[in-house]
Amino acid sequence: MTDTIFALSSGAPPAAIGVIRISGPRAGTALAALAGRLPKPRHASLAKLRDAGGGLLDEALVLWLPGPATETGEDVAELQCHGGRAIIGAVEAALGVLAGVRRAGPGEFTRRAFANGKIDLAQAEGLADLLAAETELQRGVAQAMATGSFSHIVGDWRERLLMQSAALEAVLDFADEDDVATLPADFMVRIAGLEQEIAGWLERPRAETLREGYRVVIAGPPNLGKSTLFNTLVEADAAIATPIPGTTRDVLTRPVAYDGIPFLFADTAGLHDSVSDEVEAIGIERAMDALDRADLVLWLGPEGEGPDHSWDIASQIDRPDSLVKRHPRHRISAVTGAGIAELRADLIATARGALPKPGVAALNERQHTLLRDANRALASARHESDPLLVAEGLRLARVAFDSLLGRTATENMLDALFGRFCIGK
Questions:
Q1: Complete DSSP assignment for 306-361
Q2: Of 49, 143, 146, 412, which sits with the fewest C-beta atoms within 10 Å of its C-beta?
Q3: What do you get for the CA distance between the two ends of the chain, in Å?
Q4: pTM for this prediction
Q5: Rounded to whole angstroms, how far apart are CA atoms 268 and 309?
Q6: CA 297 remoteness from chain centre
């Protein structure tokens, strides 16, 4: 991180204003080179920006923010230019020829904030989700993680665990001293309490479902109106709907939001046994895979024959030859619209209960795995009688906590995370 980096941090030009951020040890030098001076720290100042030959680039507001009290923990400068393409391009070109100054890669500003201790890994993951949020629910949950609510909880767990580890180490190291020869009476009670708190977090809805959308798969035999229902639910002619069997050959997905709840609807090939077409067979195989990954299946086939996580739907009720169902969850016609509003309301209520609550942090797969590892280590320690094995269990739990916050993160994992960010963030 000896290089100084720069990037456009505002929206793509043309725009009213283009904000170019510079971060690193030569940020002040770069600002002075273009503005002709270094302005008073943390005060916006109007300056004429010039290239190395003295040519006028733009008249802009400039900010000088010396580190470490900055977002990245480094010296930072901001150029608030006019947002035309030519102006932004010219200013970036002038910065690019300065010694020790280069364009930033994706997520490099945030990665520097992490490396300099301004944010931890859980907050960085929350920030990545916040930037990708498309619904209010996604924004609220990601905001909770990005602002450190979960990190504070993990930090508290870690401190409490350190206190118990210290008590245990005292017993191991100074067992001949009367005042530390035995563990505190509530030692195991405290470990059990920590274990229960973590278990509560492990039972919460996961972040992936929120990020990708509540996955609803429409399935059943051919010619029962799956594609027509799919088009109705996504409010677009996304799937080809015809009376010809086998029209749908692949899994077609489309994201949509109802009342701020993200859904991912999937239309699938008709399921049946007498398949002679190789392409159709592949489509059915993919449909079965989609059923396995679904949060919910809308089953249009014979009553009671759908997978466990399915709703029986009586479709095509406008037709005299529709499949008869005695106790379906919904009776609908995607053609006339009958029952669709009720089905949609039921979907919203069900998904809302399965997704994280607004403004409450949710665990992603990495965090869930590490928290599960910590909980297993604590459970193992609580059932051991040998103090050395108890100490090892507590140590493994601390390692998991450290990994959650990024204190033991690998470069490959960091590359994958920060690669999700846009350039300039």
A1: S-TTEEEEE--TTSTTPPP-SS-SEE--TTT-TTHHHHHHHHHHHHHHHSPPTT--
A2: 412
A3: 16
A4: 0.74
A5: 16
A6: 24
**pLDDT tens digits along 328-379:** 999 999 999 999 999 999 999 999 988 888 888 999 999 999 999 999 999 9
Where are the alpha helices (H) located in 55-148, listed in sequence order?
Answer: 85-96, 108-115, 121-132, 136-146
CB 6 within 8 A of CB 104: yes
The structure tokens listed for 244 are 């010809």
Q: Evaluate the omega torsion of the peptide bond into residue 14 and state whether it is cis, within 30 degrees of 0.
A: yes
Please tell me whether the peptide bond between 302 and the residue prior to it is cis, using omega within 30 degrees of 0.
no
What pLDDT, on a 0 to 100 scale, did the predictor assign at position 363? 92
Q: Which residues of 41-68 are buried (b: 16+ CB within 10 A; e: fewer)?
A: eeeeeebebbbeeeeebbebebbbbebe
Q: Which domains does the chain have, with CATH numbers?
A: 4-115 (3.30.1360.120), 136-205+362-406 (1.20.120.430), 214-354 (3.40.50.300)
> Which 3 state secondary structure label does DSSP give 48?
strand
To the nearest 10°, the Cα dihedral for 72, 78, 83, 85?
-70
Locate 170 and state its tokens. Answer: 């005292």
User: Residue 252 has which token pair?
Assistant: 């077609």
- Under DSSP, is residue 169 helix (H, G, I), strand (E, B) or coil? helix
How would you classify the pairing of strands 56-65 and 45-50?
Answer: antiparallel
- How far apart CA 319 and CA 334 sit, in angstroms, is 11
How far lies 157's CA from each of 371, 374, 402, in Å? 11, 11, 11
Say yes or no to pLDDT of 396 above 90.
Answer: yes
Query: What single letter denotes the amino acid at residue 39?
Result: P
